[in-house]
Design brief:
The protein is an alpha+beta fold. The chain has one domain: 2-Layer Sandwich (Muramoyl-pentapeptide Carboxypeptidase, domain 2), CATH 3.30.1380. The strands form 3 sheets. The protein has a 3-stranded antiparallel beta sheet with strand order 5-7-6. A two-stranded antiparallel sheet has the order 1-4. It has a two-stranded antiparallel sheet with strand order 2-3. The longest helix has 14 residues. The chain is globular and about 50 Å long.
């Protein structure tokens, strides 16, 4: 993102708009997004025991459903008609995608997956994708190791729409992996 784009985000989240993204901006962005989340948040904390109690076992495909894509989306250039996700997040996921698409169709239309029974890269811990409770969008511009907002281009409005449904936006909370939104606290 440009310095001016970073300044705009800083103004929106209520921190000094100096164009330098550091600890203060990061902390304030987390506060800003948490204030948009439902209270109480409908999703569990990201501990294995809380996730298992709420969503069930990892890689349990019986917990998944297919829902119509709520907006035009493509995966590797092919139209996506259905999304396969955990049954408990389906409605909230579709609402977040539809709302984010209204503001940023060029970002939200680039679908990079939900369910994938795999570990977190470089870890022995299962990914939230292994439960079908995380979505990746526009990974080409918002990769796992790309710092947000300095290089990753995920618009704050997309993160806001997911936060309104209780989802944790990776870019704002981890400073990278801006493509990733997950239904955890």
């Amino acid at each position: 993102m440009t310095t001016d784009e970073i300044k705009e985000i800083q103004r929106q989240i209520g921190v000094e708009d100096d164009g330098v993204w550091g600890r203060k901006s990061t902390a304030q962005c987390k506060i800003y997004l948490r204030e948009l989340m439902p209270n109480p948040n409908p999703w569990p904390k990201e501990t294995e025991s809380a996730l298992k109690a709420f969503y069930g076992a990892v890689c349990d495909e019986k917990q998944l459903i297919s829902v119509p894509a709520p907006c035009p989306m493509k995966f590797e250039g092919k139209t996506v008609k259905k999304l396969r996700c955990h049954k408990l997040i389906a409605d909230a996921l579709c609402r977040a995608l539809a709302a984010a698409y209204e503001s940023c169709p060029e970002v939200v239309s680039v679908y990079d997956g939900i369910y994938n029974c795999r570990n977190i890269a470089g870890s022995t811990k299962k990914s939230c994708h292994a439960r079908g409770i995380a979505i990746d969008i526009d990974a080409g511009q918002n990769g796992a190791k790309t710092p947000w907002p300095k290089k990753a281009e995920m618009p704050l409005i997309v993160m806001e729409e997911f936060a309104k449904e209780g989802f944790l936006p990776g870019g704002a909370f981890w400073g990278k992996d801006a493509m990733h939104m997950q239904a955890t606290q």
